[in-house]
Amino acid sequence: MDRTSQGCPSRWRDNTALKQQHLPAHRLQLSATKVLSGFFVTGTFCLGVGIILILSAKSTKEIEINYTNICANCAELRENTINFDKECTCSIPFYLPETMQGNVYMYYKLHSFYQNLYRYSLSRSNSQLMGQDIMDVGNCDLFGKTPNGTPICPCGAIANSMFNDTIILSYNLNSSIHIKVPMLSSGITWWTDKFIKYQNPNSNHLPSAFAGTAKPPFWPRAVYELDEEDVENNGLVNDDFIVWMRTAAFPTFKKLYRRLRRIQYFTEGLPAGNYSFNITYNFPVTRYHGEKSVVLSTLTWSGGRSLFLGLAYTVTGTVTWLASFVMMAIYLARKERMTVFPQQ
Amino acid sequence: MALCAKKRPPEEERRARANDREYNEKFQYASNCIKTSKYNILTFLPVNLFEQFQEVANTYFLFLLILQLIPQISSLSWFTTIVPLVLVLTITAVKDATDDYFRHKSDNQVNNRQSQVLINGILQQEQWMNVCVGDIIKLENNQFVAADLLLLSSSEPHGLCYIETAELDGETNMKVRQAIPVTSELGDISKLAKFDGEVICEPPNNKLDKFSGTLYWKENKFSLSNQNMLLRGCVLRNTEWCFGLVIFAGPDTKLMQNSGRTKFKRTSIDRLMNTLVLWIFGFLVCMGVILAIGNAIWEYKVGTRFQVYLPWDEAVDSAFFSGFLSFWSYIIILNTVVPISLYVSVEVIRLGHSYFINWDKKMFCMKKRTPAEARTTTLNEELGQVEYIFSDKTGTLTQNIMVFNKCSINGHSYGDVFDVLGHKAELGERPEPVDFSFNPLADKKFLFWDPTLLEAVKMGDPHTHEFFRLLSLCHTVMSEEKNEGELYYKAQSPDEGALVTAARNFGFVFRFRTPKTITVHEMGTAITYQLLAILDFNNIRKRMSVIVRNPEGKIRLYCKGADTILLDRLHHSTQELLNATTDHLNEYAGEGLRTLVLAYKDLDEEYYEEWADRRLQASLAQDSREDRLASVYEEIESDLMLLGATAIEDKLQQGVPETIALLTLANIKIWVLTGDKQETAVNIGYSCKMLTDDMSEVFVVTGHTVLEVREELRKAREKMMDLSRTIGNGFTFHEKLTSSKLTSVLEAVAGEYALVINGHSLAHALEADMELEFLETACACKAVICCRVTPLQKAQVVELVKKYKKAVTLAIGDGANDVSMIKTAHIGVGISGQEGIQAVLASDYSFSQFKFLQRLLLVHGRWSYLRMCKFLCYFFYKNFAFTMVHFWFGFFCGFSAQTVYDQYFITLYNIVYTSLPVLAMGVFDQDVPEQRSMEYPKLYEPGQLNLLFNKREFFICIAQGIYTSVLMFFIPYGVFAEATRDDGTQLADYQSFAVTVATSLVIVVSVQIGLDTGYWTAINHFFIWGSLAVYFAILFAMHSKGLFGLFPNQFRFVGNAQNTLAQPTVWLTIVLTTVVCIMPVVAFRFLKLNLKPDLSDTVRYTQLVRKKQKAQHRCMRRVGRTGSRRSGYAFSHQEGFGELIMSGKNMRLSSLALSSFTTRSSSSWIESLRRKKSDSASSPSGGADKPLKG
Predict the structure, then answer these.
(1) A313/B329 CB distance under 8 A
(2) What's B858's DSSP letter?
(3) Which pTM does this prediction carry?
(4) How far is B1100 from chain A (nearest CA, A)?
(5) Which of B428, B434, B1092, B1152 is found 20 to 30 A from B864 (Cα to Cα)?
(6) Reduced to 3 states, what is the DSSP secondary structure of residue B558?
(7) What distances in angstroms separate CA B1150 from CA B157, B515, B1011, B1145, one per listed residue?
(8) Who wins on pLDDT, A262 or B261?
(9) A126-149 burial string, b = 16+ CB within 10 Å, else e?
(10) Which residues of B touch A118 (CB under 8 A)?
(11) Minimal Cα distance from A250: which residue of B?
C-alpha cells in the first residue's frame, strides 16, 4: 500500500500521451477511393511491366542442345569408372537459322543434378578456398582427406564433382573451313567470388603453394593445373571452378561456361550458318539418370529468355484489374445501404 | 523470511500458555510471519528454471536443442535455437524476479506492522512477525487484530468489545465479543503479567464462526467459544483498548487458512493457444512424416545413384534409415511453426497492457489517491470477454455511509435540493449547506441542504419537534461524551447512527442514557425521559418502539419501522396524512432511498400498567416466549399516529448506476452477491438501476426447504415462459432482436426479469441436483441478487456459472469475505483504498471505484482482447509463411532437410526482423477511439462471443500463411529456374535464391503488419521501417567481406546481398510476390467491409462520414427512471440491543445503580443475544421476505 500511495502523485503528473494511449496516430482505414485507386494503379503497373518483360524476353534468341544421348557412345564409356582416363570426344553439328545479335553466352545445363542437397552444399571448406588455411578440410567429410590422410585441396563433394566437359564451338563456313569461335572464359563469375571468396595461397609458385595436398579423387589433374596458360585463372581462382562452386538452387540448372569474344566474324554476334559443338565428354550423367545440355543465348536487361516473370506479371495485372472492377461494382451497389449510426 | 517456511506435522490440539514463551516454543507453532513470496536469492535460479521448463514449449525447445546437437540429424546450427531460448528464459526470469520482489515487499510491510506485546511485564512495541503464540498483546481502537486472539479484557465494562468483521465475512454491522468473566478483570498490566492460564483448543482450521477450547487457570476450567475470540483481519471499533492472548498466529490464523493458495489463472486464449500449439505439433509431425517418406523414396530412387557424388553418411545404411533421420532433421527445421517467441511476446504485450491500466489517469481516484493496478499481468485480454460480473454490495456498490437525506413531516417533504437548472445537483454544485451553528452540540460532519426544515424546527412546529424527538429517543444508540460537548455515538447500525445524528443537529441531542432514562437536550434544554420499555427490533416485526414517560408524566410510545408494516397499524384518523406521506415514500423509494415510517401513540397510565404486567408475564413464560412477547408488542403498537417518514441514502459509490447500465448494454450480466439482508440488497438493486420498475417481474426465492426452493424456481421459469409467449411468440421476438442488433445498440436492452434469492435458499439451490435448474432460471434473468450469502457460497455461485456457462466471470469486491469469490472467478477485482487489503491482495486488478470497471472492461479489456487476437493471428501467419517454404523446397532438394534461408536469417527472423512491429501492434493498436467503445457498448460483444480469435480464425491465418509460403516459394522458383542475371551468369544459385525469398518474406510480412496495424503511431512507424532497415543492414553486414574474412566457414554468403539485390529481375520478383500475397488480403478485407461489416467497422465508417460532415458529437443521453410504488424499507439492524440496554450491561454505571437491573444471571443477555442472532441467521423471517412487487 505504501508503494502505491507514494507512487501515485508522481504517476499522476507523469501523464504522457503514451501512457494515456493518446499518441497521435494515423488510423488506417480501407476507404473505397484508396483501395480502388490502389488496385487500378497496381493493375496498370503489373500489366505494363508484364508486357515489357514478355517483349524483351521474346527478343532474345536461345538454342539448347541436349547431348546426353547424342554422344551415346561417350555416355556408355563414362558409365564405368574404370574408363576414367580414356578420352572421348563427340561432335554435334547444328544450324543457326538466324544471326544471334549482340553478346552471346554459352552455358552448360545439368538435369537432375542435386547441388542443393544439404550435406552436399555444406561439403566444402571456405577457409581453404580463400587460401587462408590450405590444410583446413572442415566440413568436407568423405572428401576431406585421401585414405592415407593427405588433405584434399579443394576438398569436399562440390569441388570433387566439378563439371569437366570441354565444349568448343566451331563455325563451319563450308564443309572444309571450320573456324573455332573465339570465346572468353573470364568475366563469368561475381567479382566478390573471384577476388574475395576464392584466393590462391600466397606464393609465387602455385604448385609449391599446394604442396602437401592431394587432388580431389575425381579430378584428372591437380588444382594448380586447371589453366596453366593464365595464372589469373589457375588454381582456386579458376573461373570454371568458381562457377561450379556457386551451387545451384534447383536440381536442373545452367551455369555460364563461356561468352563470345566479339572479333572477326563475330563482331555482330553469331552469324547464321552451320556450327558444331566439339565436346570432350568427361562428366558422367547417365550414372545418376541425369542429362546435360549446352545452351547458347543472348541477353536483355531482364536476363535470358524467361517468359515466366512477364507472364506472371501480365496475369496478376489482369486479375487485379478485374478484381478492382468487381470491387467497384460491389461498392457502388452497397454504398447506399452502408450503415451509419444516426446522429445522436 | 526462512523462518516462515517451516513445515510441521499436523496438530491434534493446540496448547498455549500465557506469558510463557519457553513453554510454547516446545510446540513450534507457526510464528506470526506471513510468506507469500516464492523464491529467495539462492533458490531463485534453480527453482525458476525448473518451473519454466515445466512449460511445454520450453521443454520442447530444450528437446530441439538436444536434437540439434546430434550431427547426423542436425540441419540447423545449435544457435538457431539456443539464442531465442535463452532470450525467452531470461525475460521470463526477470519478470518472475520482479514479481517476487514485490511480494517480498508486501510481506515485509505486513510483517513489520507494529503491535504492543506484553513481555516481562512491560508493554513493548513489536513487529507483527515477532508476535508468538501465547503472547498477550494490546490492541487499540481502529487497529487491525494481528493474530487470532482470545479476548482477555477490554476498556468496556464486562470485558465487552466491538469489532468490525467486514474483512472476514463482509458483514458491516458491528459485532460484540466478550471476555470470559474471570479474565475480564485483568485490566492492568501487572495483573496481566501474572496471568498464566493455559488454553487447550482445536487445531488451526478455516471455520470462521466456530471455536472450541478450554482455559485452565487457577485449577479451574473455563470453556471458550467463538464469542471470546478476536480473529485476525477484524478491526477493533468503539473500544478504547483490549488485551488478547495469541492462540493462532500467521499462517494458522483463520483468515490465512481461508485464503488458501493462490491458484494460477489462465485465460481462455492461453488454453486455446496451448491447444493450437498441440495441433501445430501434430501438423509438424505430419509434415515431418511426409517429407521423411519423400526422402526415403528419393534416396531409394535417386540418391543411391547419386552416391557417386555424395556418398551416404557412414551411419546411413538404407534409404529407410535416411528417411528416419530426415524426419528429425525436418522437425528441427520446421520447428519455427511453433514460435518460440510466442509465449514471451504474449507476456510482453500483456505487461504493456497492464502498465496502461496502471497509468490510466481516468482510473485514478483523486480522493483516495489510488491508481488502478493490474496485479496480475496475465489476464488482460480476458477482460475483453467478460460475460458475468459478480459484485459485492457493501463497499463496492455502496460506500457504506448512511446519510440522512430527506424526510416527510406531517405531509410536508423536506430535503430536496435543486440547482438552477432544476436538476438534482451534484455535491460540488450545491448551495451552502444548512448552518447548524446555533447548536453547540451539532455534529460538524452532518450536512443538510434544505433550510426550510431548520426553519420549521426554529419556528417550533410541534410536528417537527415530535419527529426529531422520536428520532432522539427511539433507538439503541449508546453515547459517549469524553469532554463536555464532544459527543460520540456508538450505533449498532449506520442507519440508526444517521438518524440520531440528524436529530442531534436539528436541536434534539441525545445526550446520554441509563438503563431507565434517556436524557435529551431539546433545543438547548436538558430533558430526561423515563425509559419504560424498548420493544426491540427484529426481522419479523421490522420495527422498534420505545415507551417513555416525559417529565410531565405522560406516557408515549414512539415507533419507527417499515412502511409496509407501520402504515397498516395507523389510526384511521390519519388517512389524509397517510396519503401525503405515502406519496413521499414512493418518491423516496423511487430514488433508491431507504425509508422508515415514524409514528407515536399516547398511552394512559392504567393501560400501560396493565400492558407492562402482561409483558412481564410473557417474558417469564417458559414456552414460546418469543411469540407471546411478539403478540404483546403487537397489541400496543396499534392505532398509531403518523408523524412522518425518513429517507436515508445508502450512499452509492460514484457512478454506479451509470456503470451498471452501460455494462448491461454491453451484454454483461451482473449478479450481486451480498452478505447483507434482502431488503437492503434489493433497495440497492433499485438505487443502482439493476432492478427497475420496467421489469416484468422480480422473482424472490426464500424457500427454506429443498422442495420450496425448487417450486419457487419452477414457478419463476413458468412465468417467464408465459410472459414471453404473451409478448408475441418468443421466437419472433428474438429474431427482431438480432436483426435490429446494429440500430438498437444505444437503446437499453429491455430489462425483463430479476431474481432475488436468499442465502438459505441458495444453499439448497446449489445442491448438485438443483444447481442446473437454479442456473437456468438465474441466467434467464437480467439481474440476480443473492442476499445473506456466506463467502463460501459466493465462491460456489461463481464456480457454478464457470462450470456450466463456459463464460468468463469477473468478481469484484472489497472485503475479506469476497476473497474466495475473487479467487474463484476468472478475473478478480479488488476495491482498493479501503481499510482492508485482503481483497486487493487476492485480486488480479484493483482500483478504488466501482465505476472504473466500465473503463477496465470496455476500454482496456476490449483493446487487450482485440490486440491479443490480432497479434496471435499475425504471429501464426508469419511463422507459417516463413516455415512452410522449407516444406515446398523439400520437394526440390531431395528432401535433404536443406533450408531455404541462411541460418542467421532463421535465427533472427522471429526475434529481430518481425518481432517489434507485431509487438507494437499488440501493445498500441486501437480499432476505435476509447470514447466510442463507451458509447457503443455493443462493441464489447465480439469478445464475449470469442469472435476475433478462435479455431476458425486460426485456420484462416494458417491458410493465409500457407498461401503466402506457396507464392513465396514458387514465384521465385518460376523466375529463377529459367532466368539469368543481366551479365549472363547464372541467377539460380542457392544463395541468391535464399536472399530473394528471405527479402520478399520480410517485405511481405511487413506490408501485412502494416495492413493489420489499425493505429499507426510514431512507434509503429519506427518499428516497421526500423525492422526493414535492420533487416537490410544485417543482411549486408552478414554478407560483408569483413565478417567473411574473420569466420569464412560461418558467413558463407559473402557478397551475396550486393550481387543479388542489384538485379532488376530479383526486385521484380520481390514486387510481384508482395503484390500477389497482399492484394487478395486487401480485396478480402474491402469486400468484408462492404458486404458484412462488423460493428467496429460501422463505427469507424460512421466516424469517417461524420468527420466529413464536421458534425458535432453529443454525449449519450441516459434516461433516468422514476420509481413506482414499492417499499423502500431497508434497515441494517440486528435485534437484541434493546435488551442489552435495558439490562444496563453495556453501560458504565456505579455498581449501585447497576444492581437494581441485574436481575438475571450475568451472562443471560449475551446468551440470548447470541441465540437470537443464530436464529435469525439460520431461519430468517418468512414474513420479511414477501415478494417486493405485486
Answers:
(1) no
(2) I
(3) 0.82
(4) 8
(5) B1092
(6) strand
(7) 11, 12, 85, 12
(8) A262
(9) bbbbbbbebebbbbbbbbbbeeee
(10) 75, 329, 893, 896-899
(11) B892
Q: What is the pLDDT of residues B250-270, one digit of tens each?
A: 888 887 776 655 566 778 888
Q: Report chain B residues whose CB lies below 8 A from the CB of A32.
A: 1086
Residues whose CB is less than 8 angstroms from the CB of residue B147 and which lie 6 or more positions away in sequence, other chains included? B32, B128, B131, B137, B232, B246, B247, B248, B249, B250, B253
Q: From B305, which residue of chain A is nearest by alpha-carbon distance?
A: A288
Q: Which of B1011, B1018, B1045 sits opposite A23 (nearest CB)?
A: B1018
Which of A306, A325, A328, A337 would you mutate first to test chain B, the one with the most B CBs within 10 A?
A306
- pLDDT digits over B394-420, tens only? 778 888 788 888 899 988 888 877 655
B1097 CA: distance to closest CA in chain A (Å): 9
Pairing of strands A183-184, A253-260: antiparallel
* 3-state secondary structure string across B705-725: CHHHHHHHHHHHHHHHHHHHH
Question: Residue B424's beta-bridge partner residues?
Answer: B418
Average pLDDT, chain B: 82
Identity of the residue numbered B82 = I
When mean pLDDT is compared across B14-23, B279-288, B897-906, the lowest value belongs to B14-23
Is residue A108 within 8 Å of A163, Cβ to Cβ? yes
Q: Do A114 and B109 touch (CB under 8 A)?
A: no
Residue B1028: its H or E element: helix B1018-1038
| Greatest Cα-to-Cα distance within chain A, rounded to the nearest angstrom | 106
CA distance B458 to A34: 76
Instruction: For residue B334, give Cα distances in angstroms to B345, B884, B903, B960, B964.
Output: 20, 8, 13, 17, 16
Residue B1093, all three cell numbers: 461489416
A98 and A92 Cβ atoms separated by less than 8 Å: no
DSSP B527: E
Catalytic residue check, B196:
no
Task: Pick the residue from chain B with its C-alpha nearest to A103.
Answer: B984
User: What is the value of ipTM here, to two decimals?
Assistant: 0.94
Q: Rounded distance, CA B929 to CA A24, Å? A: 12
Selected for mutation to probe chain A from B105, B310, B1046, B1075 (highest A CB count within 10 Å) is B310
Of B306, B746, B1087, the CB nearest to A344: B746
- The CA distance from B179 to B227, in Å, is 8
Alpha carbons A54 and A52: distance in angstroms, whole number: 5
Nearest to B543 by CA among B504, B509, B496: B496
Alpha-carbon dihedral angle through residues B70, B341, B59, B865, given to the nearest 10 degrees: -150
- SS3 state of residue B753: strand
- Report the C-alpha gap between B543 and B563 in whole angstroms: 9
Cα of B891 vs its chain's centroid, Å: 55
Give the mutation candidate from B971, B983, B1039 for the A interface (greatest A CB count, under 10 A). B983
Query: What is the percent of chain B where pLDDT is above 90?
Result: 20
What residues of chain A lie within 8 A of the CB of B1041, using their CB?
192, 196
Which one of the listed residues B360, B392, B925, B1012 is annotated catalytic?
B392
